[in-house]
Amino acid sequence: MTILRFVASYAALAALTALATAAQAQQVYRIVGPDGKVTFSDRAPSAGAEGAPVTSGQRGGNANDALPYQLRQVAARFPVTLYTGNDCQPCNGARNLLINRGVPFTERTITSNEDIDALKQLSGVASLPFGTIGGQQLKGFSDSEWSQYLDAAGYPAQSQLPPSYRRPAPMPLVAVKPAAPAAETAAPTAPTAATPTARPAPAPAAGKSPSNPAGIIF
User: Fold this and answer.
1) Which strands, in side-by-side order, build the sheet including 28-32?
2) Average pLDDT over residues 200-218
3) Distance CA 141, CA 132 (A)
4) Are residues 79 and 48 in the same domain?
5) Residue 197 φ/ψ, nearest 5 degrees
6) Are residues 37 and 102 in the same domain?
7) pLDDT averaged over the chain?
8) Helix pair 89-101, 143-153: axis angle to 10 deg
9) Using CA atoms, how far apart are residues 4 and 94, in angstroms rounded to an integer?
């Protein structure tokens, strides 16, 4: 009887040790560097940096929180936004490229005059699709061109998205305002929301390498 109890206790201790090891391996730290920059890592902070373990509640509801560490870092540095419209076949091609490659992205739809005006301020044109990868702008869709920019930004060639990942739903570029009640039509209208500021033009190609044949600089 004593031997059986010892074996049971040993097995329980081994299971607890395995759970503790797994939990430690999955621990993520919020690190504040000497320059004040905040990063997230699965490694404890080094000397000169402040860090604390991050719980699931602290990470919030961002869809990128569920991404693998390396992919999450790339998405944070060079977020991808795709601007699309109805009955736009090139838009479908750009979307399919991002989905098939496993690139996390935000989609903004252009369906109203306000959306078109905001798009012109962003890109200088009203044509679609339009995309941004970090500070780079991509007008129109070319599979090879978009792939080169994604490669240069560091996005993996094959999808690394976990099965639980859910892509954010497309949203209008300009928020839709609720219609005012008939009795309030004579009231002064509220000022419209500020449209996004224009992004800088793409940097010239330079610094070519085997992993970045186009020499794209972010």
Assistant:
1) 38-41, 28-32, 50-54
2) 61
3) 12
4) no
5) -75, 155
6) no
7) 76
8) 40
9) 63
Question: Exposure of 4 by Cβ count < 10 A (0-12 exposed, 13-18 middle, 19+ buried)?
Answer: exposed
Q: Indicate if the pLDDT at residue 52 is higher than 60.
A: no
Q: Is 10's pLDDT higher than 80?
A: no
CB-side neighbour CA atoms (13 Å) of 46:
3
125 within domain boundaries: yes
User: Percent of the chain at pLDDT above 90?
Assistant: 50
Please give the average per-residue pLDDT across 155-161, as a whole number. 96
Whichever domain contains 122, its CATH number is 3.40.30.10
Residue ranges of E strands in the chain:
28-32, 38-41, 50-54, 80-84, 105-109, 130-133, 136-139, 171-172
- What's the pLDDT score for residue 6? 44
Cα(94)–Cα(202) distance, integer angstroms: 19
pLDDT band of residue 25 (cuts 50, 70, 90) is very low
CA atoms of 63 and 166, how far apart (whole Å)? 7
Sheet holding 130-133, edge to edge: 136-139, 130-133, 80-84, 105-109, 171-172
Mean pLDDT for 15-39 is: 53
Question: Domain range holding 49?
Answer: 28-54
Q: Please name the residues in contact with 75: beta carbons below 8 A apart, sequence gap of 6 or more.
A: 64, 67, 104
